[in-house]
């Protein structure tokens, strides 16, 4: 079964983070109507929802391309959440990029700094978390 996220309870994560732990999450959900029935949730979708619920300062989604590209194939260094819908509706964004961009739009709407970057680049997380430009930044 594959599910969509309807709500995130950040309290357990807040407790772990406050206690100094770094939680590692598996994107598994359950139905309220059938709590014994587990379902898969797209990991990017889950990351965006959790980041938004926690009020995270940043969300970095790693992929195998240097950045999101526009219809002409040019890299996009920064885009708004509204532009995400346009890229998806026009078919420019496709495949695995769609849940990444939707996750960033959701997180950005909650005030989270969200970037899509090439996870193969050395030290890319440090680069992004230091506020340096890399990949594509999605803003509210």
Distinctive features:
140 residues; alpha/beta; four-stranded mixed β-sheet; 5 helices; 8 strands; globular
Provide an overview of this structure.
This protein starts with 10 loop residues before the first helix and ends with a strand. Helix 3 runs antiparallel to helix 4 (97-109). It is built from 5 helices and 8 strands. It has 140 residues and is an alpha/beta fold. Strand 4 and strand 5 form a beta hairpin. The radius of gyration is 16 Å and the shape is globular. A 4-stranded mixed sheet has the order 3-7-8-6. Strands 1-2 form a two-stranded antiparallel ribbon. A two-stranded antiparallel ribbon has the order 4-5. The model has no long low-confidence stretch (mean pLDDT 94).
Radius of gyration from the CA trace? 16 Å
With strands numbered from the N-terminus, the spatial order across the biggest sheet is 3-7-8-6
Shape: globular
Low-pLDDT sequence parts: none
Strand content: 15-25%
* Average pLDDT level: 94
- What is the chain-wise order of helices and strands? HEEHEEEEHHEHE
Distance between the termini: 31 Å
| Structural class computed from helices and strand pairing | alpha/beta
Fraction of residues in helix: 25-40%
The number of helical runs is 5
Question: Could you describe the largest sheet, including whether it forms a barrel?
Answer: 4 strands, mixed
Q: How would you name the oligomeric state of the polypeptide chains in this document?
A: single chain
Number-wise, the strands total: 8
């Amino acid at each position: 079964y594959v599910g969509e996220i309807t709500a995130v309870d950040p309290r357990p994560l807040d407790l772990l983070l406050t206690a100094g732990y770094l939680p590692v999450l598996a994107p598994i959900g359950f139905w309220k109507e059938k709590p014994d029935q587990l379902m898969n949730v797209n990991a990017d979708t889950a990351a965006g929802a959790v980041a938004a619920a926690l009020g995270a300062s940043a969300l970095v989604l790693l992929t195998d391309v240097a950045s999101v590209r526009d219809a002409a194939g040019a890299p996009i260094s920064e885009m708004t959440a509204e532009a995400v819908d346009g890229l998806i509706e026009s078919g420019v964004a496709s495949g695995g990029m769609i849940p990444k961009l939707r996750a960033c739009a959701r997180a950005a709407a909650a005030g989270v700094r969200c970037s899509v970057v090439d996870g193969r680049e050395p030290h890319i997380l440090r680069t992004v978390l230091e506020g340096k430009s890399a990949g594509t930044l999605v803003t509210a």
